[in-house]
Amino acid sequence: MFYFILIVSCMSLMLNCYNFLHNFFLLVAKKLASQYQKEANKCNSGMETCEEVKEKAEEALSAEMKLTTMWEIRARQKGWREKVAKSNAQTQGGWVASHCLRDSKLCCSGGAQR
C-alpha cells in the first residue's frame, strides 16, 4: 500500500511538472510569437514607406524627363544640334551646351554666344 501511495504521489508530481513545463513553454512561445509579429509589423511598415518613397522618386524622375524632353525640343526648334554641342564640349574642355541657355541665349552653330 505504501508503494501504491508513493507511485500515485510521484505520478501526481510528474503531472504537475508536465503541466508547469507545458504552461511555461506555451508562455515562452506566445512571447516569441508576439515579438516576431511586432518585428514583422515594423518590417511591413518599413516596406510600405520604402514603396511610397520609390513611387515619389519615379514620379519625380518622370517629371524631370518630360522637362528635359521639352527643353531639348525647344533647343532643336531654335537650331541646336547634338553633334555641334558634343564637339563644343570636347573643344572647350568639358563645356556643356546646356550652359548656352544662360541669359536666354542659345548656341546653335558651334560658338558660344554670351
From TrEMBL:
**Record carries keyword Transmembrane helix:** yes
Q: Which UniProt keywords apply?
A: Membrane, Transmembrane, Transmembrane helix
| Membrane-spanning segments | 6-28
- Which InterPro entries does the UniProt record give? DUF1068
Indicate what this protein is called per its UniProt record. Answer: Uncharacterized protein
